Amino acid sequence: MSCEELLQKRLLFLSGKGGVGKTILAAGLGLCAARTGKRVLLVELDTIETLPRIFARPGETGPYREYTLAEGIRGLHVDGKSGLEEYLEMVLKSKRLTRRIFRSPIYQYFVNIAPGLKELMAVGKLWDLEQKTVARTGQPLHDLIIVDTPATGHTLSYLQMPITAAETVRKGFVNKEAQKVVDLLRDPIKTSFHIVTTLAEMPVNEALELRDKVADQLKIPLGCFFVNQMYPPFFEGTDLEAYRAWGRRLQEPGVLPMEPRIHAAAESWERRRRSQDIQRERLVGDRRGAPLVDLPLLPTSGSDLELAESLSRALAAG
Amino acid sequence: MHVTALDLDTLLQRKRILVCCGSGGIGKTTVSAALGLRGALQGKTVLTLTIDPAKRLANSLGLTKIGNSETLVPREKFIQAGLDPSGRLFGMMLDTKHTFDELIERYAPNEEMKRKILNNRFYQNLSSAMAGSHEYLAMEKLYQIYLQGRYDLIVLDTPPTRHALDFLEAPNRVRAFFDRSISQWFLKPYLTMGKIGLNFINRSASTVLKLVERMTGAEFLRDVSEFVTGLADAFDIFRSRAEEVMRVLQGEATSFLLVTGTDRTALEEATYFYSRLQDGRLPFGGVIVNRVHRLPTTENPGASDVGTPPLQDDDPGEAFARRLHTERGLPATVAQRLVDNYLQVLWLSRKDERVLRAFAGTFPAQVPLRTVPIFDEDVFDLTGLAKINAFLFPPT
Questions:
Q1: Partner residues linked to A205 by β-bridges
Q2: For position A184, which CATH number holds?
Q3: Which residue, A13, B244, B292, B336, shows the most beta carbons closer than 10 Å to its own?
Q4: Kind and range of the H or E element at B341?
Q5: What local confidence, expressed as pLDDT, does residue B305 receive?
Q6: Are B320 and A258 within 8 A, CB to CB?
Q7: Number of domains in chain A
Q8: pLDDT of res. B200
Q9: Which residues of chain A does B323 touch, with a Cβ-Cβ cutoff of 8 Å?
Q10: Which of A167, A201, A241 is the best residue to mutate to test the B interface, defined by the most B CB atoms within 10 Å of its own CB?
Q11: Is the pLDDT of residue A110 over 90?
């Protein structure tokens, strides 16, 4: 799947087990799209805010304030509680009244018990962002919205909320809002849900289960599996033969200091690659038609932004 | 302050509950299962309790499926891994919905009310609605099993959260939820008096209730008030139970372990977590740092591989790569690649050492700590758990 194809949608979700590199990939995709002239919005949905740190733009953030991350890339942190407050201010059109309401313990209590109201408001904000246009031209304000999501369990409950809310609350604003949001989430032209994984047992398990839940339960259009941090083969062809022959000679006299350690480090790489192969087979065998996008393991000594830039080049190269 | 060796064997001997906390994605479940395995090898009857839709514990224990009940890890699994435990290891995956239903069944005042609540749409969405309910239910189940006294040791793998701290907040959130003063003031009049009743309660309450009704329709409020009225008397029981759970967690029998990785934010969180445990008077056991990079060791180091390594992490390694090429006959590109790879591993291990030193330096107390290296192969069976234990419980 080419980068161009990936970025044709308006609303991209990235999800997967913690620690597989979702946020840096989101940044990489954003850079990739911005390079083609798209106006990109990177949304962190109820996660610990890390994009400003990755783009080295600290100090400009706070919930519900858009800020610039890079040329053509804006960032936004979305959480449910601020979403609800923003929404109520809009509906009630009175700062004084809303302030009184937000202070009320009853409001606080209600916000905490209403089924998924906070989650609904957060996902509702995505709908709102997708609708926004530039007044003068009528063009969309954001060409592409990339949503970095929390751990898979949280992501599912977030996206489940509009569906549940539409069923639980049969009348009123919540019902109407929920239905609008569900329609956007399930729109195959606009929305695409991508799963990020590394090639280890648990992340792959979680990726496959997530895929089933997204496709069968939530009925949100599935994108691809991003296979992150793949070990390329260490040596191939004649290089591999030379390497093996060298390995055999390490038992003989005349070995230089450090040679055994250098060999052990290379063997460790090979073992990791082989165990990754097994996991990739599992993904290939059970992917239900979703394409796999392979992303190489990149040197970790650079900054997170350098990593995101390398990823965006790998994506663009296909 | 400085680091001391975390003596996990002593904790296993003295404690009956070990709570493993930490944010997701750093092998918390695997470490919990490894602790459980150690207990079983020492002759204990151990339960590893987890909440996890992703069946990670089942994977860790080499089982294909663990139900909502306690499941014994079959003996042949241990034999296959070359282990011979004198105790027994059980795994249990918590189904939060089921645990909630059990609570309702126990505390509903009568049959009719029980049926009404279980069918109530608000109740059916409650576990997802009530923040921290998963965390709380894990504690509730832990407490139940602890009181039954069937296990020598229970290892609780806490649910993955954004912050390790979310778990500690859960009882307070549950207490707040079951706070009668707010819930009844808010909802009871709605049910008993209908809409007219709204005029009699205070003005800001009525503003909020009207707003809620406008947003959700009256049906939702009716569902909530039915739920609250039905369980009004049980609320006190729920609340006092949450307090009892806290007392056990604060007691002699329990120890909290923080499982973390080597990234800076995770370690910063560990320091904060420690101070929160202190605030809550919860016993801190120590820190387990998982997936630490280290230099690969050679099984049989060559005789010349002693003394100061000629390669340092600020050395581009070109000279050594040239020697590998000229003296040892490796193609120049192959030699350089090998040296680069070694330097990368060296760099990572030095970085982890530095980060851990800095962490210990800023930690407000002596920090009992164990590190587990990152392995080349995935850990997801008993053999892998035994490999982890070689580092958690090094021979003295």
A1: none
A2: 3.40.50.300
A3: A13
A4: helix B332-362
A5: 41
A6: yes
A7: 1
A8: 45
A9: 256
A10: A201
A11: no
Please name the fold of domain B3-177+251-294+357-392: Rossmann fold (3.40.50)
Looking at residue B203, its pLDDT comes to: 57
Our CA-based measurement puts residue A214 at a distance from the nearest CA of chain B, in whole angstroms, of: 14
Contact of B22 with B260, CB cutoff 8 Å: yes
Residue A111, chain B, CB below 8 Å: the answer is no
Q: List chain B residues with CB under 8 Å of A96.
A: none
Task: Note whether A317 contacts B: Cβ–Cβ < 8 A.
Answer: no
Q: Are strands B367-373 and B88-93 parallel, antiparallel or unpaired?
A: unpaired
Q: Which of A101, A115, A249 faces B208 most closely, judged by CB atoms?
A: A101
Q: What is the pLDDT of residues B293-316, one digit of tens each?
A: 887 665 443 333 444 455 665 666
> Averaged over B121-133, what is the pLDDT?
61
User: What pTM was computed for the model?
Assistant: 0.80
- Between the alpha carbon of residue A254 and those of residues A186, B302, B306, B392, the distances in Å are 67, 10, 14, 38
pLDDT reading at B53 higher than 60: no
Pairing of strands A222-230, A292-296: parallel
CA distance A299 to chain B (A): 8
Q: Is pLDDT above 70 for A12?
A: yes
In the prediction, which pLDDT does B199 show? 44
**Chain A nearest CA to B7, separation (Å):** 28
State the residue for tokens 């005029």. B199
- The residue of chain B with its CA nearest to that of A152 is B54
In tens, the pLDDT along B378-390 reads 777 888 899 999 9
Query: CA B24 to CA B215: how far, in whole Å?
Result: 35
Chain B CB within 8 Å of residue A101 CB: yes
Residue numbers of the domain that contains A87: 3-317
Every domain of chain B and the residues it spans: 3-177+251-294+357-392, 178-237, 318-354
Gyration radius from chain A CA atoms: 23
Cβ of B302 within 8 Å of Cβ of A260? The answer is yes
